[in-house]
TrEMBL record:
Organism: Mesomycoplasma hyopneumoniae (strain 232) (Mycoplasma hyopneumoniae)
A Pfam family of this chain: Aminotran_5
Name of this chain's protein: Nitrogen fixation protein class-V pyridoxal-phosphate aminotransferase
Cofactor section: pyridoxal 5'-phosphate
Coiled coil, from the record: none
Gene that produces this protein: nifS
Annotated Aminotransferase class V domain residues: 15-368
Lineage: Bacteria, Bacillati, Mycoplasmatota, Mycoplasmoidales, Metamycoplasmataceae
Length: 381
């Protein structure tokens, strides 16, 4: 396996095993963001200048690049602040198609961002929330919205996206895919849903930027729920005429530097290849699992081969273990990871999570295991 750590300066300082929370950024992304501020810090709305025009053209090309990556068209791509905002935007725009008695089908493993807004909307309209890990089994004529994560940040579940899409289309239900955790190692496609979202920071890109993609035929039927400059062609004292397409959904000044960085992140991943990333993650994941299962009193809740592994060490508090690891410059996560039903599903209050990325290697895993096996661990907690 090629060692890519030289591309990630921060990894020289720490053993980083918390990529499900935030991925580290390669130098190419960092340099691209810096390049924007050093050489091209002009708003794309200021097109009456050479740099302004170049910026507008560059953002357009990055939009096209992202669209190709997720089997979409450039006019279906909407930039925003992150997956949380993207989900809220989609839900608040799609709710006009809901009526009392309709069902919203959710996975109990959804991130809270993909639960809260649907619960609020259902309560206001009088719709019914249905929870199921087996999404396809619960799709019925009453189902109006299906919202899930292609893969989540705790227990990885393989969903048959093709069959879910076919059945949803049969019953005229809208499908939304939170692709945040999947986007960096799985194929993500707008062809199999009406809308999808992901965050740049889970994609080797900068924080503060997300993508919401919506099928063009649906996008043209939606009205914005966020208002501001850059979205309207004409305003009179009593009337507003919006631009067509994605423009009416991108209010205000975009995070241009972050978009530049995201474009570089797409290039970085394309240069490696999604299949190669997935293959390396599986090899590392099996190695990690086999090392972890030898630790005394360990309880593993994930399947062998999953690159996100959650576990506990019996008789010890998860947060204490994570604090101990942090004191040894090893960064993992404790808690339920914004998955509110995880405690009920696994009947534990808190967990330790290790999440791998392509930049990790066997040495990272060996260091984690070595520190966990030290007798000082028992004394610390």
């Amino acid at each position: 396996m090629t060692n890519f750590k030289n591309n990630f300066p921060f990894l020289n300082k720490v053993t980083y095993l918390d990529s499900a929370a935030m991925m580290q950024k390669p130098l190419s992304v960092i340099k691209k963001i810096s390049d924007f501020y050093l050489n091209s810090a002009i708003n794309i709305h200021s097109q009456n200048s050479k740099i302004g025009y170049e910026n507008s053209d560059k953002i357009g090309k990055i939009r096209e690049k992202i669209a190709r990556f997720i089997n979409a068209e450039s006019e279906e791509i909407i930039f925003n602040s992150g997956t949380t905002e993207a989900i809220n935007l989609f839900a608040n725009m799609i709710k006009k198609f809901l009526k009392k008695g309709d069902q919203i089908l959710l996975s109990p493993l959804n991130h809270s961002s993909n639960l809260i807004i649907w619960i609020k909307i259902a309560a206001k309209i009088g719709a019914e929330i249905i929870y199921s890990k087996k999404i396809i089994d619960k799709i019925s004529p009453k189902t109006k919205i299906i919202a899930f994560s292609q893969t989540n940040n705790s227990i990885l579940v393989n969903l048959n996206l093709v069959e879910i899409w076919k059945k949803a289309v049969k019953y005229d239900a809208f499908v939304f895919n939170d692709a945040t955790q999947a986007i960096n190692y799985q194929k993500v496609s707008l062809k199999l849903c009406h809308g999808l979202a992901f965050s740049s920071n889970k994609f080797y890109g900068p924080t503060g930027l997300g993508v919401l993609a919506i099928k063009k035929e649906l996008l043209n039927k939606l009205e914005p729920v966020k208002f501001g400059g850059g979205t309207v062609a004409e305003i009179s004292s009593k009337n507003i005429v919006y631009y067509n397409g994605y423009r009416k959904f991108e209010a205000g000044t975009l995070n241009l530097a972050a978009i530049w960085g995201l474009g570089a992140a797409v290039d970085f991943i394309n240069a490696i290849g999604i299949k190669k990333i997935a293959k390396k993650l599986q090899v590392l994941s099996i190695y990690l699992y086999e090392k972890l299962e030898k630790i005394e009193k360990i309880e593993i809740f994930s399947k062998k081969g999953n690159h996100i592994i959650i576990f506990n060490i019996k008789e010890f508090n998860a947060s204490d273990v994570v604090s101990y690891l942090g004191n040894n410059n090893i960064y993992v996560r404790s808690g339920t990871f914004c998955v509110p039903f995880l405690e009920k599903i696994l009947k534990k209050r808190s967990f330790i999570r290790v999440s791998l990325a392509f930049y990790n290697d066997f040495n990272d895993i060996d260091r984690l295991i070595s520190v966990l096996e030290k007798k000082e661990f028992l004394n610390f907690v």
